[in-house]
Amino acid sequence: MDKQNRQALAYLLIGVSAAGRALLAVPENTQLQELSLTVLAVVGYFLVSRRGVAPLLCGIAQLVLELVLCGSQSGGVWVWLMPALRAVDLWLLLLTAVLMLRQAGQTTKAMPVVAAVPLAVYTVTHFFPGAMAAASVSFVIFSVVLLWYAVLMLRAYNAARVKH
Fold it and tell me: How many CB atoms lie within 10 A of CB 35?
């Protein structure tokens, strides 16, 4: 890969980050891993920020939320907000995916819709202790759909690499 091809590098970093998040596939005790993968994605968003700043802003918001979530593990002030912050973090991830797919020219409308369904189920069910099984299953399904996003970003990487 040409070291000057920032666009291809960005898509590669974002695709690897999405694949890493997908492989976590558990909603609990993954905040530190998600934080490091989000940092990787934010670097990718920064590399393509000339083409649009919205993904970078969403990525920075995710990073802030994940830092708060990591700090809340020890019983901080935010502990009672953790379920809501977690849901907002995941919806920001999906929004960023939609923005990056548009920016990369990967115009699939199916992936965001398919991802939104299990994410909506997770958002609702993880607030109820009796529905933890449904929340876990929907989170795993959402994680599998993130693999689809990773594949699309890796396709964009390949197209940008070949084009340059």
Answer: 17
